[in-house]
Amino acid sequence: MCTSVRLSKITVFRSVGNMLLILLIFQLGSACTRERLKVEPDNDAPWYGDVPTILVENYVNRVFIDLLGREPVDSEMTVHVQYLRAGDLSKARRTDWIRILQTDTVPAAGDSSYQSVYYRRFYEMTKVRLLEGVSDSYLLGQIGILQFGIQVDSLNGDTIAVNKKRANVARYERIMQCEYDYRFGLIALDSVCARMVDNPVYDFINMNSFNFINATFDNLYFRFPTQSEFERAYLMVDASQPSTLFGRPGSNKSDYIQIVVAQREFWQGWIIWAYKTLLARDPSTSELYAALLQLNADKNFHTTLSNILISDEYAHFNP
Known about the structure:
Blueprint: H1 2-36, H2 53-68, H3 74-86, H4 91-103, H5 114-131, H6 136-156, H7 159-183, H8 189-197, H9 200-205, H10 208-221, H11 227-237, E1 243-245, E2 248-250, H12 253-260, H13 264-279, H14 285-298, H15 301-309, H16 312-315
Antiparallel strand pairs: 1-2
Helix pairs in contact: 2-3, 4-5, 4-15, 5-7, 6-7, 7-8, 10-11, 13-14, 13-15
């Protein structure tokens, strides 16, 4: 009898132990499953259906001004708001829309095309950044003065003065040619900036080699040169002596200009300029890194601008 009772208790304990083991395995399995199926918070696609129309109109207006230098006419406002709404204001739709304003060649609202106005605006903004917004009419006036001087110097037989004036005429003309050449891919953005800092206007704004070197660093990199950088650059620019800057050799002012526009920091400067211009702030470290990766891959600054313009921060959308 006692033996039978002891066997029954042992059997019960074994059964309970097996059940606990099964429950433990089930709980562990459930925990693993929950971990695998865990959904991160705020991972859903944003919903922009509740964004008021007035905010969408403000967004369209602001992009037009920043990219094209003008406000949209009423018919454009209607069409572009509808286009964005049809895509639920998604960032993909915004990207497509920005691309239209940057590349569309169909005549629009009295303009030859969005593309032509976009590149004209970018050309003017680049002159504002580097040449204090000098007008093309001023450049043409300077060319006229130089051409008259060339005629006088030719009559006097002063070939040195003639060649110097012709070189300056070419520099002025290269500035004004930037818009067309950049638009049609004949030159890249680094060449645009090289032309913008290699001309009598930039030299007049930043007189002497000391100011010129500091200005190119400040304008292109948003910083001033270190003492070592300045000394190396000064040998090239002022003394036309061989030197090395950023690991590249040069022996004159032209070499120096080509060196400074060929650096990774040149693209960083454009990113900083874009954030300051469009968002009135500096880019964060992560934003700067992401933009540099994109520019290193394709050198397409239009994409950099687009990535800022489609952001909720710029659009003031709060989904």
